[in-house]
Amino acid sequence: MKLLIIEDERELSGSIAAFLNSENYLCEQAFTFGEAMEKVNLYDYDCILLDLMLPGGNGLDVLREIKRQNNPAGVIIVSAKDSLDDKVNGLKIGADDYLAKPFHLPELSMRIYAIIRRRQFSSSNTLSSNDISVDLLSKEVHVKDRIVVLTRTEYELLLFFIGNRNKVISKSALAEHLSGDMADMLDNQDFVYAHIKNLKAKLAEAGADDCIKNVYGTGYKWIE
User: What residue spans of the chain are helical by DSSP H?
Assistant: First the structure.
């Protein structure tokens, strides 16, 4: 799952990113209003953590832009501005949650999880497709009764495919999902093919074959 942390306090942003990376999230950071607007206009995220007080502008204007785009990302306002007006205005514009500083990182993680689960996986803790089941809390993957051990990247790919089942996903979209804004700096996207090949092999060995189809010249598709 890919997150964007919009926070001008670099030490706090770094602490949040380090903790969430340990929870298997891919985190990108923006420290100013301009950086935040650039990223929400260029890249897709599963959840955005949004501070209201930003150098160069107001975080609520970033939220308005996210909603203007009909962007499906969940938004949690994370701000020291704990006034009722800020909270109400943010929720009226379309934020999913509001967390006042200071806060405990495990609580932030659970709020992110709750939003992603609600938005992408119908509020369920278990994701199922074909003979595959994924426990979103323990991050365990089973094919029938057999556990499948995946790397972090393979696990992210599996969730991305199942969450976009029966849709053709381009190689560039997969590269961006796995590596974030670093994808623009890569010489090629061969790493995507390598991870898909490994994921397909592990699923096939466990008895779930032919879930991922190569759509020639376009990308890949999860078949259900």
Answer: 10-22, 33-42, 59-68, 84-93, 105-120, 152-163, 171-179, 190-206
**In the predicted model, what is the mean pLDDT of residues 101-126?**
83
Which is it for strands 219-222 and 168-170: parallel, antiparallel or unpaired? antiparallel
pLDDT of residue 116: 83
- What is the dihedral sign for C-alpha 78, 5, 140, 176? positive
β-pair partners for 5: 29, 49
CATH 3.40.50.2300 is the classification of domain 2-120: yes
- Model pTM? 0.69
> Where are the domains positioned within the chain?
2-120, 126-222
126-222 has the same fold as 2-120: no
**What does CATH list as the number for 126-222?**
1.10.10.10
> How would you classify residue 12: left for phi > 0, otherwise alpha for psi between -120 and 50, otherwise beta?
alpha
What is the Cα–Cα distance from 201 to 192, expressed in whole angstroms? 14
